C-alpha cells in the first residue's frame, strides 16, 4: 500500500497502469488489494446488502471524512480541506448543505471508532488522538461521547466511555465478498456476555424506545442464519448456476472458474510495440485531480497554478534529503540524524495478534527495534539495551537489537505493536492548537504548540508519524487521504530520555 511519504502517487499510477493494460476487466487482474477484477465474483446482493435491512425510521445522511485528520476535524470542524472544498464536496456529493460562510461539522459522538476499531494504532500521530480523547474537562474540543464495540481492550477501546462486548467472527454467520463471495458459518455460541453487532443494535434500539426515541429494529423472529438465507435468495448470480444456500454453507465460497485459455496479462504484447514520445521515453502520468482540484504545485506543496504536466521528483516531507541538506533540525531544536522504517512483523497481521501471549513467547519480543552496529556504537548502545526513539511528534521506549542487515542511518520499528502509555512524559510539538498546550513558538510562518504526552512503552510506530497531507490528496468521493506516513520519518535514538539531552 501507500504507507510512506507521497506513497499515494505510486498507488494512483498502479491503478492507471492496470487500467491501461486491461487488467481491470480481466479475471485475476486489478491490484489485488481491496479491489475486485469485476469478473471473478458473480454474486450481486439486492441493494448491495449481504444482510437484510432490519430497521425502519428516520435515516441520516452519510458524509465521508479523512480519518487521518480526525483530530483536526474535531478541533476545526474540517478535515484539512479548504472551506470551499468542504462545502462543495458535502453539497454536491452527499447532498448535505453546510453553512457556506463557514462550513464545519461538530463531532458529538464517536460510535465504534474513526477509522477501524483500533484507530489509535492504525492512524498517524497517536499522541494527538490520545490528547483529544482524554480532554474531558475545561475544553471545547473534547469528545462528548465515545462508544465502541470490541472484543479486546485495545489501546483505542481503553479510552472509550462505554465498551459494548462484541463476539468474534466465529460466533455468528455472515457473508463477505471480494474476488469471490464467502460465507462464514457460525461455529460456536457467543461466549460470556458478548453479542453479535446485530444483537447489540437491537438492545440499543430497545433502550432508545424506552427513552421516547422511536426506533424499529428487530429480526422479526428470525435467526441470523435465516436472515443470511433471505439475503442469498434475493441475490443474483451471473455466469454460473446459482447454488442453494445449503450448498453455499457447505462450500463456503462462490466464484467463477478461471478460463485457462485466456491470457490475464497483456503487457508482454505491448512491450516494445511503440516508442514513447515523452520527455523521459517512458510512461508518464498526469493527475487532473491535482490540477483541477486546487492547482497544487508539488514542488512547494502549496496551491498555485500548474501550466503544463512535467516530470518532477517529489521530495518526502521528512526524507533523507533533509539530512543530506542539513535541514534536519526539528521544532524541538534537536538534530534528527536517522530515519525509521516499519516492516511487517512475522508475529502479527497489522495490529492483530499483538496481544496473544503464546505468539509473543515464540519471538524475542523485548527487542522490538533493530539498528545498525555503526549507529549503535556512535550512541553507546548495545544489543538488548532499552532506548528512546523520538522526534517532534512523540517518543517510544523499547528494547533494541543490533544487526548489520539494517542500513546505517535507519532504525526498524516493526509495524503493529499496541500503544502502551508509560509513566514518563515527553514534550511533543504540533502545528494545531488542541486547547491544552503548555507553550507555543513560531517557526518560519507557522505557530507550533507544545504538549506533554506520555512515552509509549509498547512501540507503536504511529507515535512517531505525522498526519500531514500533501497537495490536498483527498479523494472527494470517498474523503480518504492518499498517504499513511508509516515509513521514513526522521528521528533520533538515545539511551537517555531525550528531554534530558
Automatic annotation (TrEMBL):
Molecular functions (GO terms): electron transfer activity; molybdenum ion binding; molybdopterin cofactor binding; oxidoreductase activity
Q: Which residues cross the membrane?
A: none
Q: Does the keyword Cytoplasm apply?
A: no
Tell me which cofactor or cofactors this protein depends on.
Mo-bis(molybdopterin guanine dinucleotide)
Q: Which residues form the Molybdopterin oxidoreductase domain?
A: 3-207
Q: Which GO terms describe its cellular component?
A: outer membrane-bounded periplasmic space
Q: What is one GO biological process annotated to this record?
A: anaerobic respiration
In this chain the Molybdopterin dinucleotide-binding domain maps to: 339-421
Keyword Metal-binding in record: yes
Family as reported in the entry's similarity comment: Belongs to the prokaryotic molybdopterin-containing oxidoreductase family.
What is the name listed in the Swiss-Prot or TrEMBL entry for this protein?
Answer: Molybdopterin-dependent oxidoreductase
Task: Give the keywords, sorted.
Answer: Metal-binding, Molybdenum, Oxidoreductase
